Amino acid sequence: MLNRGKVRDFNQIFLLSFIVLTLKLTYMSIDAFLPIILLSKYTIIEYTIFRNIKDIIGVLLSASIIVAGYWFGKKADLANHYMDFIRAMVYSWILAELLAGVGWVLTDSMFRTFFEAALANGLRGYIYFTPLFSGITLGWLVKERFTVKPVWSEDVLRYVLIYQGALLARSVIGVYLSKTLLYSSHQPVAVYGLYSTVLSLILLPVSLWFLWKMFEAGKQVELGAVYGSILYTLWALSVAGGIIGSIARMVILSQLDAWDLLLVIGKGVLGDSIGVFGNAFAVLCFGYLNSRKVNTETMDRI
User: Fold this and answer.
1) Are residues 288 and 156 part of one domain?
2) Claim to verify: residue 209 and residue 70 sit in the same structural domain
3) Residue 23 burial by Cβ neighbours in a 10 Å radius (0-12, 13-18, 19+)
4) Whether residues 133 and 158 fall in one domain
5) What is the pLDDT of residue 48?
6) Contact at 8 Å (CB) between 217 and 287?
7) What residue numbers bound the domain in which 4 lies?
8) Which of 64, 138, 176, 232 has the most CB within a 10 Å radius?
């Protein structure tokens, strides 16, 4: 009976993961060439309306993924089978990429462009699964009402501060370079591309260090008691960094406008509220689950 339930859960998470990835890749693929089509037929004002509708759909889709994972986690035996669920996600990722590849080979014209975008975006399919995994973990973990506590988490605060500081520095430097290089006729675009690549490469080890620290923190915490403060810490510092970065960008580019600033901040807060369930928190959840399993196996051997 246990094996039958395990197979059922595996099949369900495989199907859920495949649906999630298909919807996200479809959305991203349409987003790749839809602006060109809209701008050729509609005015800038009409295009802006379509773009805002598209952004709302994207937010609703991302939120639905987290909620779907949360409700699945309510009935899942995550403690014993979390690696099976991760394998199911990987298998669905492979299947989605194979189908996108087949579509790219068998089609042409605009449809080939669609599948080509799906293939390219699918290479980073893990970024669509991490919110799903975070939702599943929280659904399994939270026994009563889901709450986020507005207090700083000492377990991750310093790591998040360093990482968000690095992101902010990169953003401000990138905007300054775009003003001095892209808006100047004295420097070729290739120079800006080179500087941007260097900035990305510098940030890469910081990002990897941050994920490793989140994994280590997950092994040390009792996530059921502190998940609220961890989510708040990730969210608040991300929002603060985004607001400071938006203001710095407008000041550097001399485009400071109150309405535009409010719009950018509003979108940023909304995006950060969903993004808080992304890579960092998912890695922390994995560290927590892995630590629990290791401790259980150790006690069983004893």
Assistant:
1) yes
2) no
3) middle
4) no
5) 74
6) yes
7) 1-142
8) 138
User: What's the domain count of the chain?
Assistant: 2
Give the whole-angstrom CA distance, residue 83 versus residue 89: 10
Same domain, 161 and 102: no
- pLDDT of 30: 82
The label of the residue with tokens 């246990």 reads: 2
pLDDT, residue 117, reads 86
72: tokens are 């699945």
pLDDT in tens, 102-145: 988 888 877 888 888 888 888 888 888 999 999 999 999 988 78
How far apart (Å, rounded) are the C-alpha atoms in residues 285 and 300? 23
Q: What's the pLDDT score for residue 251?
A: 79
Residue 2 has a pLDDT of 47
pLDDT band at 187 (very low <50, low <70, confident <90, very high): low
Q: Which sign, positive or negative, has the C-alpha torsion 288, 270, 161, 278?
A: positive
Q: Which of 67, 54, 56 is nearest to 20 (CA)?
A: 67
The reply to whether 162 and 300 lie within a common domain is yes
Concatenated DSSP letters of the chain: -HHHHHHHHHHHHHHHHHHHHHHHHHHHHHHHHHHHHHHHHS-HHHHHHHHHHHHHHHHHHHHHHHHHHHHHHTT--HHHHHHHHHHHHHHHHHHHHHHHHHHHHH--HHHHHHHHHHHHHHTTTHHHHHHHHHHHHHHHH-SS------S--TTTHHHHHHHHHHHHHHHHHHHHHIIIIIT-TTS-HHHHHHHHHHHHHHHHHHHHHHHHHHHHHHHHS-HHHHHHHHHHHHHHHHHHHHHHHHHHHHHHTT---HHHHHHHHHHHHHHHHHHTTSHHHHHHHHHHHHHHHHHHHHHHH-
The model's pTM: 0.85
Question: Quick one: what percent of the chain has pLDDT higher than 90?
Answer: 37
Res 192 pLDDT > 70 = no
Q: Are residues 165 and 48 in the same domain?
A: no
Tokens (6 digits) for 65: 């993924």
